[in-house]
Amino acid sequence: MTRLEQKLRASLQRLGLGGEARLLVAVSGGADSTALLDALARRREPRGALAVAHLNHLLRGDESEADEQFVRELAARLGLGLAVARAPVADRARAERANLEATARRLRYDFLRREAAALGAGVVVLTAHTRDDQAETLLMRLLRGSGAPGLRGIHETADLGGGVRLARPLLAVSRAEVLAHCGNYGLAFRTDATNFSPDLTRSRVRHELLPLLRTFNPRCDEALARAAALLSEDEACLRDAAAALLAGADQGGALDLGALGGRPAALRRRALRLWLLAARGDLRRVGRAHLAALDALATSGQSGRAVELPGGWRAAREFGLLRLVPPRETRPASPAPRPAAGREVFGDYELTLRRALPRRLAAELAAAEEEETMLLRECAALDGVCWRARAPGDAYAPAGRRRTIKLKTLMIRHKIPLRLRDCYPVLVTAADEVVWAPSLPVARAFAPPDDAAECALVIARRL
Known about the structure:
- Helix content is 43%, strand content 20%.
- The chain has helices at residues 3-14, 31-43, 62-78, 89-96, 100-119, 131-144, 148-151, 175-185, 201-216, 220-249, 257-260, 265-280, 288-300, 359-368, 407-413, 418-421, and strands at 23-26, 50-56, 81-86, 124-126, 157-161, 164-167, 250-251, 254-256, 306-308, 314-318, 321-325, 338-339, 342-346, 349-358, 372-377, 386-388, 395-396, 405-406, 426-428, 434-436, 454-462.
């Protein structure tokens, strides 16, 4: 038994993938995935519990075709089921203006998730990432200035979505041990010529930086893997604390900024990251600069301010709340004015105006309502009133005040969210004099006197 087989057996036991587990192995044809499939096939019965998946990225012409043919022959020789698909990765990356490697990775995992789901519930996807891949990834992220979440490196397990689990059982195995396994059993494998290209960062890290680091510490690969494991433990702790913070701040999808205030930036930003992930479904193109801007908005921004996020998303501050606005949600156009005769729907409200009610009856009806109500002075000025949206220059003197106040100022004081203001109902007279708006004080000129015999009653119900 090779060293790779020994480590693989221990890894599968730790991951809970015993002999009864159903596995779908991602095989590119390279040494790592070929060795993983071979080691699994040597120990697994029945063979129906093991299947192979290969995605042809169509990036290297004849070499890609040869890789696919190699995997087909390998699966046939081992008597294993095979799923093959082709993806024009370069075309997709150009069309989406995305990174080529990231696009290839996304399409590959989408393919693996679909194939695993097609095989039935409980199938686990295996990939052949090794300790060398872990060291390379950690160094590349360190060079990019990644934070602690990125410096955890490659995760041993992951959720691909749709109930499909991903596992990487060779993360403790070195590439030298992979090649020793292939040599021991005389396994042929494919070699990707781009792995030696000096134009690729990973290739330079593999062939230039890591050999140099090994002159300082011959076991630097192990040291880097150990650092990634320790960072992963610390990050898991911080992530749990951030999830608890997010749960306490959640207000039906919006965030209570009071619950976030005063907490350490490390927790706040992780909570915001989890919030974005839950709402968007992914964090594609969301970088540290976006999270820093979002954190600044949450801690020191003013109501009405917003932060633009990738993909057309927008985070907006509304007084003590932070809301995430999806790209399809645009601010609605202001509704056309509607006469305030009887019952009417305007914006998010159903509004009812009743005229010439005895003062006592009007008060009793208002008290019996569970919705917002307002008593108005019954007068001729209410003839021809209508509901309309706010307009530039709107202002009035509220009851109990002498000075005129802008409607915009009152909306801010009474915390009417900016996203609602353009379709918020404002009751005005035929002469365009502001009478009242929901949640705001009534105009002084329309406040009923204590000795009024009759009143008008407005009922405002949120839809």
